[in-house]
Amino acid sequence: MTVIQTAPEQQRRSVGRFAGGRSLNEIGLIAAILVLYVALGSTAAGFLTLDNQLGMLRDAATVGIAAWGVTLVIIAGEIDISIGPAVAFSSVLVAMGAAEWGLGIGPAILLTLLAGTAWGGLAGWLRARFEVPSFIATLGIWSALGGLGLYLTDALPVVLPRSGLFEVLGGDVLGIPTPAIVMVVLFFVFAYIARYTGYGRSVYAIGGNAPAARMAGINLARVRVLLFATTGLLSAVTGVLLAARLGSGNGGAASGLEFDVIAAVVIGGTALAGGRGTMLGTLLGVAFITVIGNGLVLLGVNSFLQNVVRGVIIVVAVLVNVVLSKRARATRET
């Protein structure tokens, strides 16, 4: 007897397959992180010390805060490569606003956050209004902010004024690094947005099939502007925290950060083609990237070779992602 599946039943099967593949990826990442901890704990002196673990939390926050926004961008089938220069310019902007322009601490931070939202929104507007590929739009932002940060400072650090607020932002709360606390809070915010809000569902729909999402009544232009405005805001948050941590703004800081962010998102299982990904996967990707980076430093690996290792990791992650995407697509079609 032939059994005819109803639409809800087919949808539940599709969701179940997706969830199964997602869980497999996350379990694999957890296993890989545990293996790294065992290997580095026995070979890298000081890896398991409390100070080093807290330092890794700070490093993870630098990647993770921006990664939450980039995860949604990539799920929507877009890309943002402006993160590194955006973070560096944000550190310069908050430092110059507080130290040289006489704005005061609070207004300088607010100005930086508003500026980050604005340049991110500009990239989104270019994508939405003129169909400029997001890679090109954010490449323009990458170049402009990178050059502007170095021009305004003559490539020299701008020292922050002494402030209790900056000490807290660059320090810790009850022994936990403040940037790590911000990262965790934002993780739960974005996890909720992605899973339980109409906006989050719209992001997945656009990444899965943009024309169909438009026909369903989703405002693609508004969602795209919001996506990139969000990544700009999160880059600014990261820049403020980085400046507080370093005690200065630096136009050359956060070099290559965009690659670590994208690598963490992709390693976490987010499909570059869009429509698939989770915040939990990105969190595990951030942890994986951070542990590897820290381990390479403690093992004394040459800094240039560290870039080689990161490059290999990105390529392998993309290959694995592509293979898993093809298998999931083939499963859905059967």
UniProtKB/TrEMBL annotation:
The keyword Nucleotidyltransferase does not apply. One of its GO terms (molecular function) is transmembrane transporter activity. It is a multi-pass membrane protein. Its main location: membrane. It comes from the Bacteria. One of its GO terms (cellular component) is plasma membrane. Keywords: Cell inner membrane, Cell membrane, Membrane, Transmembrane, Transmembrane helix, Transport. Pfam families: BPD_transp_2. It is found in: Cell membrane. Signal peptide: none annotated. This is Sugar ABC transporter permease. It comes from Prauserella muralis. The lineage of its organism: Bacteria, Bacillati, Actinomycetota, Actinomycetes, Pseudonocardiales.
